[in-house]
Amino acid sequence: MAVFNYTARTRDGAKQSGDIEAPDRRAALRMIEQSGLVPVSVAEGAAATAAASAAKTAARPRFKLTRGERMSMREVLIFTTELSDLLASGMTLGNALNTLAKRRVGTSSDGIVRGLRNAVVQGSSLSEALQQHPRVFSKLYVNMIRAGEAGGALHEVLKRLVEHYERVQDLKEKVTMALVYPLIVMVMGAATLIFSMVNVVPKFERIFKQMNQALPLPTRILIGTSTFLTHYGVFVLAGLGILAVLANRAVKTKNGQLWWHGLLLRMPLIKGIVASGVYANLARTLGVLLTNGVPILQALGIVEQTVGNAVIARELRNARERVTDGTSISGPLAAGKVLPPMLIDMLSIGEQTGDMAGALGHIARRYENDLDRNVKIFTTALEPILIVGVAVAVGFVAVSILMAVFNLTNGMGV
Length: 414
Hints:
74% of the residues lie in helices and 6% in strands. It has 16 helices and 3 strands. Strand 1 (2-9) and strand 2 (15-22) form a beta hairpin. The protein is elongated, with a radius of gyration of 31 Å. With 414 residues, it is mainly alpha-helical.
């Protein structure tokens, strides 16, 4: 691919310039014309030499840490919003992508947007171009775009995608924010205990040894723990790090993921947050897909990959195998006895009334409200639990030292 610098004019005569990647000058001219511009001049730029040099360098084997072709959820949302707005204003898809491709933000998203533009102006549909970047655009995204292309309402589908991903992002942020405060309390409490064990207790230990008197049991336990951490703390940290890595690898396996996600659905305080988030995500995603004309079995397959919980994903996979008429899903989902009866009943009503999308919207709102309530319960209950736990641990250190001091002063007759 060579890089060509071009100058062109829009239909209303406005001058526009930029660069475009193409195999040769004729292909560059064709791509510029297909994007709705009238080319004035097209010349191979100095960037072409740099691009060729970069291609040769990339062909050489070398070790390199790069992020690759990735876009964050926020970048995908911005791209989708801007593309929807440009299409809604009457701009053609090629022109809209060309406009977005010229906005360089210095991240890997620049190359992705340019690739989408080049694929579209060369004759590919947007959904086909998106499929070339599976790590960026999910199957949900691609299938909804394909449905929008078939229905001739691409910008409307893009708006629904923005709304959907904003809701998903909002759910994730709620769960994350619920865990921030407890994490801070735990880290600060652990840091205080470690500092006491490593720096404070050894100083008192030296004083107690000089007194040469018997110490209370709690003090002996405290000193023994402090001595162990002082001498073997590094090995303990290394062991914990190894265990964390092994556990992380284990939960990424199929069986490990099923065990871990199942545990989250049963864990007190946590299960309400996890289940509500999963069910809200399931209902929102399925509703968006069905609204845009995606067949029910295909929609279930997409939701299975995006639901975010291996146990629920397995149940959706089993339900797909139980579906016989291709339309009713409440019965197959109820047969697994994994999803809550309320969700199944509301889904069944939607099937009976012929308003599945509306029923799924009600389900999503119900579980989003449940998520808000469960997050408040979690933060309200966990705060005093953590404070009491940290207070007990710090209090044990203080009481153990004070007991030894009182014992020594009593022995000295003070």
